[in-house]
Design a protein that fits this description.
Elements: H1 18-21, H2 24-31, E1 37-41, H3 47-60, E2 68-72, H4 75-89, E3 99-102, H5 103-114, E4 125-126, H6 129-143, H7 154-167, H8 171-178, H9 186-202, E5 205-206, H10 208-221, H11 223-232, E6 235-238, H12 246-256, E7 262-266, H13 280-284, H14 286-289, E8 294-298, E9 300-301, H15 306-316, E10 328-329, E11 338-342, H16 345-361, E12 369-373, H17 380-388, E13 393-395, H18 405-418, H19 423-430, H20 438-449, H21 457-460, H22 464-467, H23 475-488, H24 497-516, H25 523-534, H26 540-561, E14 568-572, H27 573-576, E15 581-586, H28 603-617, E16 620-629, E17 631-632, E18 640-641, H29 646-649, E19 660-661, H30 667-671
Parallel strand pairs: 1-7, 1-8, 2-3, 2-6, 4-5, 6-7, 9-10, 11-16, 11-19, 12-14, 12-15, 13-14, 15-16
Antiparallel strand pairs: 17-18
Length: about 700
């Protein structure tokens, strides 16, 4: 897929000891001659170091800093690279003259100078998210839609427009491919999106996506500007290239121009963000788009033990579309990864917490450990078990499962069934009724409390003295809410808390989520899993009592427990990319959960799910445990057997297996686990990022 790399002659007067600070693979990539260069940097192989030294090498060869363009995915990453380059080259080069930053930062900088070529004032305004939403609200209001005409909410309209821009697709294609729920609304979507674009142009406004789109327009439609930028940027370097979307990929090629001195660094095996618009073809087809490009592969991994890498290599070897590579460890051997079956989700959580406790008692701090999962709702049982054991933890999304707004909405319904006198729960639930704000909610509550004691809630909600506070427009939705609470309050309903959650979903909440949610946000699936979890409890009071324990534990942590620093990390795999821990646990490795059913419908999607599993395994430095439940307990009370993840079944078996398979999770297995102890400071972010 590549030509033989061409190396430029090394300077004999170099101030930097490249050979002493880089391994052979890194040195070859750093020394590569000008031209299209792709560096495939395996996990933990020193990607950032290699890119930094290549910039320094270019400066030593005489490339002026103002002729370099460095594109990254965070401005922080660009600043860090500039700092490292400055340390390498010293004061003989003004590194601050390098234009570096995110795609949006670079586009904004260039458009400030050339916006007039596109008909914009050079004093155009960049809309933040809130401003963009306000403008979209205004565009929707102009339509004056009849009550029977539905259209996505402003946030969803903005997302549809953004996807069309970044994927370089028509709105029609985006609706069909990504948001089929909104296809019947297509005419209104098209008209509103067109009006949004018109208003931005009239008012000299650009949202974040416009920055990239208009930079592309400059490069395509304005030959003079394109020539000026080609003369300015002799060399273009791109970090995390596997995460670029279609529009960003086109911008990279346009900015490199005919000169073609382009260096991209990334790892095809860590391309996991297609749901955000990342375009896998950018990296995998790079050699085809740039004939004669040199491809360098970094395979020396400085993070993980040979045992962890043996398993990770076995995982990713099953993908067909990739640049083949085998990561080799630069560290001493350690314990073999463990594949751990558990009876059910509760046993899975107990086993993980027992092992974490054992490692902690053996000297490994909590901050050196992480539990990873495919979706946020997979941590439900674990969060409860950690709270029971008073083990402090942080969730990398920033929001614990039971603190998410949609979870609290549904639980408020259950709290109201359990205690009709729960004022806070009532007001939270009733404010979701269209037309009911804080004042109306207060009046409703006052009238409800004035009714005869002992009157069922469902009956009280339909009384005239309560509904007299409602507008005519609010009454139909409020009556549906009253009917829902009546059904939830029927005799015996409290014996099935999971069924009550399903009642809320079928009573309109799932439909409300579908009208405003994206398939990726998983809120309805969160609630389905919450219902399954609730079925483990004998009745509603016991279920709510357990959740109160979690809330109390979270409150205590907020008062300072987490400030002590030693906390366990819980994270989805997507949010863990680029990080590392000494011990990593991966949960819910069953088909349907990991890989996730709705994310693995095609061969391409399954390969991305496998890349995601690969990313999970390569977060571990020393110890890796892959855990899965053998069964779930549905409402009917009969266990349903689960199939282990196909990614586990693909691993070699027998004597050559890259793992140790434990018997059913047990305390004995926990205590027999690896003793890692402490090896000094723990780096949560790898010094040699992926």
């Amino acid at each position: 897929m590549s030509t033989s790399p061409t190396l430029a002659p090394a300077s004999s007067s170099s101030r930097i000891d490249y050979a002493g600070q880089l391994n052979e693979e890194q040195l070859q990539a750093v020394d590569a001659a000008a031209g299209p260069v792709m560096v495939i940097a395996g996990a933990g192989s020193g990607k950032t170091r290699t890119l930094t030294f290549r910039v320094a090498r270019m400066l030593e060869r005489g490339v002026l800093p103002e002729n370099l363009l460095l594109l990254t995915f965070t401005n922080k990453a660009a600043r860090e690279m500039s700092r490292r380059v400055k340390e390498l080259v010293g004061s003989f080069v003004d590194v601050e003259r390098i234009l570096g930053g995110t795609f949006h930062h670079v586009a904004h900088t260039l458009l400030r100078r050339h916006a007039s070529a596109l008909g914009y004032s050079e004093r155009f305004t960049v809309l933040d998210r809130e401003d963009a939403r306000d403008l979209m609200v205004s565009c929707l209001a102009e339509r004056k839609l009849k009550s029977d005409r539905r259209i996505p909410r402003p946030e969803l309209m903005l997302e549809l427009v953004s996807l069309a821009t970044n994927l370089q697709q028509s709105l029609s294609d985006v609706l069909v491919d990504r948001r089929p729920l909104f296809v019947p609304m297509a005419p209104e979507v098209f008209v509103t999106a067109t009006r949004y674009r018109q208003r931005k142009a009239q008012l000299h406004l650009m949202d974040f996506d416009d920055l990239l789109l208009n930079l592309k327009r400059l490069l395509v439609e304005q030959p003079a500007v394109r020539a000026e930028l080609a003369e300015r940027f002799h060399s273009v370097l791109v970090d995390e290239y596997q995460d670029t979307n279609k529009l960003q990929g086109e911008l990279v090629d346009l900015l490199a121009g005919e000169r073609g001195d382009l260096t991209v660094v990334g790892d095809d095996c860590q391309s996991i963000y297609s749901f955000r618009g990342a375009h896998f073809a950018n990296i995998i087809d790079f050699p085809e788009r740039h004939p004669g490009c040199a491809v360098f592969t970094l395979t020396r991994n400085y993070r993980s033990t040979p045992e962890v890498l043996q398993l990770a290599n076995a995982v990713i070897s099953r993908n067909e579309r990739q640049f083949p590579k085998v990561l080799t460890a630069q560290r001493a051997p350690g314990p073999r990864p463990e594949v751990v079956p558990a009876l059910d989700a509760a046993d899975q959580a107990r086993w993980v917490v027992e092992r974490i406790t054992a490692l902690r008692e053996g000297g490994l701090p909590l901050e050196a450990m992480a539990v990873l999962y495919r979706a946020h709702n997979h941590s439900l049982e674990l969060q409860l078990e950690l709270a029971r054991r008073s083990i402090p933890f942080r969730v990398r999304s920033g929001v614990r499962f039971f603190e998410q707004p949609h979870v609290k909405d549904v639980l408020a319904h259950l709290r109201l069934v359990n205690n009709p006198g729960d004022e806070l729960a009532f007001k939270r639930v009733v404010r979701a009724v269209p037309g009911v704000g804080p004042t109306t909610a207060e009046h409703l509550w006052t009238s409800l409390r004035a009714l005869p004691e002992g009157l069922p809630l469902g009956e009280g909600l339909v009384r005239d003295e309560v509904q007299s506070h409602l507008s005519r427009k609010s009454r139909p939705a409020f009556e549906r809410f009253a009917g829902l609470m009546g059904r939830m309050g029927r005799p015996g309903a409290v014996a099935d808390p999971g069924g009550l959650i399903e009642e809320v979903l079928s009573g309109g909440y799932a439909q409300a989520l579908a009208a405003e949610a994206t398939p990726e946000d998983g809120r309805e699936e969160d609630l389905r899993q919450l219902a399954a979890f609730a079925r483990r409890f004998e009745d509603l009071p016991r279920f709510l009592s357990e959740l109160a324990l979690v809330a109390e534990f979270a409150a205590k942590e907020a008062l300072g427990a987490e400030a002590a620093g030693d906390v366990l990390t819980l994270s989805t795999v997507h949010q863990a990319k680029g990080l590392e821990w000494r011990a990593v646990f991966v949960l819910w490795l069953v088909d349907g959960r990991f890989p996730m059913s709705q994310a693995a419908r095609t061969a391409e999607e399954e390969e991305e799910e496998r890349r995601l599993f690969y990313v999970a395994t390569t977060r571990a430095r020393d110890a890796l445990a892959l855990v899965y439940p053998l069964s779930v307990l549905p409402r009917e009370g009969e266990r349903i057997l689960l199939r282990p993840s196909r990614f586990l079944e693909e691993l070699p078996a027998g004597e050559g297996a890259p793992y140790e398979r434990l018997t059913l999770a047990s305390t004995e297995a926990v205590r027999a686990g690896p003793s890692l102890g402490s090896d000094g400071p723990v780096a949560l972010v790898s010094p040699e990022e992926d």
